[in-house]
Amino acid sequence: MSGYWAGILVILAINVIAAYSAWLPLAAGQVNLGTAGFMAVGAYAGAVLSGDYEWPVGAAIAAGAVASGLLALLVGSAVLRTRGLYLALATLAVNEVVRGILLNWDAVGGASGYPVIAHIELLPIAIAALCVFLVAAWLGASRFGMTLHAIEQDETMTGLFGVHVSRVQLAAFTIGGVMAGLAGALYAHHFSYIEAQYFTVLMSVTIVLSVVLGGVQTVWGPLVGAAFFTLLPELFRGASNWRYVLFAAGVIAIMALRPQGIVTRAALMRLRRAA
Amino acid sequence: MVAQQLVNGLMLGAIYMMVAVSFTLFFGCLNFLNFSVPALFMLGGFLTWAFVQMGMPWVVAVLGALAVAAVASLIVERLTWRIQRGGPPLIPLVSSLGFLILFENLVLVRWGSDARSIPSPFGDANIRIGEVVLGVPQLACLVVAIGLVFGLQFLLARSKLGRGIRSVAESPETATILGVEVNKVVPRLFLLAGLFCALAGVMFSLSYQLVSPFMGDQVALKGLAAMVLGGMGSVWGAVIGGLVIGLIEIFAISALSADHVSVVVYGLLLAVLIVRPTGLFGDAGLGQQKL
């Protein structure tokens, strides 16, 4: 496999993990526009532990994921009282605060970034992405996944059936935070260098965009969306500057024609019946 | 020194105020977090530079830039709100993000990604009052911005269009039943709100004399913060929120450093959302549409 394709597959795997981290809260109707901030926490925590504290890489990456999950738990308990677009704005603010703190924190390199010594190749990243997909598929098919879907459909009604809505939402948000931290820590250890400027709100927004485009109804949506977002600009690479124009036009067209995303529950049923 | 910063903060705040008003019109009336606002802001500012560069006189360049932004806003209306209304508010939000990427990259394809400096039509005219230096373009922007908000408020309260907009904000279905032509009112709302943020872009480029294809991103995030601070859907809230964010930014730069601005501004935004999600002037009914 050429280095070019290996590079794209690494990015695809990381994007897939990030997509599932945004998908879990989205499946319950919550928009997390701070995914990149949680990724930054995972990346920096993992990198500092494997660098300054000489932890083994695997343990450092796991700790990065846990650190991001803890932050998600903390933030989630505070902001999940707010709903809908308010929650989206709160997570957006979290993203900018995290980025601002890292940018000014000299112990982790501040604005000049932080070099990561330990390095991992494609294989462990791909395995991690596969594991995240399996976990998401299992969660989606479980009672928990059904509850998320019910909350997305009608929050009040789900509450009336005896579901502790805010606790389920907090769980989805926190698991999403763990996955985002994992994506960030993997990124840090593959690219050997991280800087706070990279983890922008625009990146968070792009992740949510990819999930919604793929479709939030089924577990396949985020996978399709992440693949679309990673591979389509590459396909248009020959078109140089025009590729993002074409890509954006594609996004607008798909959302106009299929507002529920590319993969919907109905589409999967039709596929199954045809097979 | 403090007086100078107060003035600088208010002038920067005038730009955030215009952007926040634009966001709040979309949000308050249509429950639509419209992420094409940063792109319309950029079109206003960047195309002013581009048209001046082509040798057009200033007034023509500004009007041309506003016209392009207005058309862009109408296109956004056609392909987002009109076909996706009634569904989850996330869907038009995603489409409008598509437009953000589209417009920014169209400009990038034509003119490249570099930041360009734009000459001021006012020269470097300043007014001095004691120690305080007032830049003429900034001062003009502040005055124009406040005037426009008063105009908008009058329009919403008194005109037929304003009544139509307010009725759509209450309920598009009821408005239709009562004979309001929703598909005529909403494009006009897009036109109005789009012009507001495009004009903010023009003001930004004239005041700070720097344009780039991504100039809208940071300003729009601050505008969003201003909208939340003031209370979503409230025009006067957006005005106060914009001015406050502008002041905080200027004082944070002088008290800490430019790098700390985002921590302070977004930390405040987060605190407001946790403690008082309805903002300073918002209605108690969370997420209720109102104007």
TrEMBL record, chain A:
**Has UniProt tagged this entry with the keyword Aminoacyl-tRNA synthetase?**
no
* Keywords per UniProt: Cell membrane, Membrane, Transmembrane, Transmembrane helix
The lineage's top-level taxon is Bacteria
Q: How does it sit in the membrane?
A: Multi-pass membrane protein
A Pfam family matched in the record = BPD_transp_2
Any Gene Ontology CC annotation: plasma membrane
Localization per Swiss-Prot or TrEMBL: Cell membrane
The transmembrane segments are 6-24, 31-49, 55-75, 122-141, 170-189, 201-232, 244-263
List each coiled-coil range.
none
Question: What CDD domains does the record point to?
Answer: TM_PBP1_LivM_like
Q: What is the protein's major site of localization?
A: membrane
Recorded GO molecular functions are: branched-chain amino acid transmembrane transporter activity
Concerning PANTHER family, the annotation shows: HIGH-AFFINITY BRANCHED-CHAIN AMINO ACID TRANSPORT PROTEIN BRAE, HIGH-AFFINITY BRANCHED-CHAIN AMINO ACID TRANSPORT SYSTEM PERMEASE
According to UniProt, the name of this protein is Branched-chain amino acid ABC transporter permease
What organism does the record attribute this protein to?
A: Rhodovarius crocodyli
Automatic annotation (TrEMBL), chain B:
Kindly list the biological process annotations in GO that this record carries.
D-alanine transmembrane transport; L-alanine transport; L-isoleucine import across plasma membrane
GO MF, one term, reads: L-phenylalanine transmembrane transporter activity
Per UniProt, subcellular location reads as: Cell membrane
> Do you know which InterPro entries this protein is assigned to?
ABC_transp_permease, BCAA_transport_permease
Q: Which GO terms describe its cellular component?
A: plasma membrane
Q: Name the principal localization, coarsely classed.
A: membrane
The Swiss-Prot or TrEMBL record describes its family as follows: Belongs to the binding-protein-dependent transport system permease family. LivHM subfamily.
Q: Write the protein's name.
A: Branched-chain amino acid ABC transporter permease
Instruction: Write the lineage as a comma-separated list.
Output: Bacteria, Pseudomonadati, Pseudomonadota, Alphaproteobacteria, Acetobacterales
